[in-house]
Fold this sequence. Notes:
This protein is mainly α. The chain is built from 5 helices and no strands.
Amino acid sequence: MGTSYEKDVVAWANEQAALLRAGKFSALDIEHIAEEIEDVGKSEQRELASRMAVLLAHLLKWQYQPERRGSSWPRTIKEQRRAIEVTLRKTPSLKSSLRDSDWLVSAWADAISKAVAETDLEDVFPEVCPWSTEQVLDPGFLPG
């Protein structure tokens, strides 16, 4: 076998791809290939959660700091909604995350952390997201 997975994952991946294309299946590092395939899905889930947290944090800032609203906040809200829509269109299986209460609780907690860090407001944000997922993703929705 060539480059080890632990030593250089990029070189390893290129070698594994070449082995697959050449039909040399017995030479494949099956265990690490399986891990990498699973990681692709996890990476997509992390990206969706990150975008949702940014979107929620900006909706919180919009509601709780109306005096600081600027043109960048609506742009960020619009961009996150667009990116989430594209992600869900390209990876429809991720839509189930939007119905997963644990996933939503985690995204909300991340959003609260971001909003607190960006506003220095503490103990003002609700413990539970006050908006439905449909509202959050609705291009016409802004709280307050």
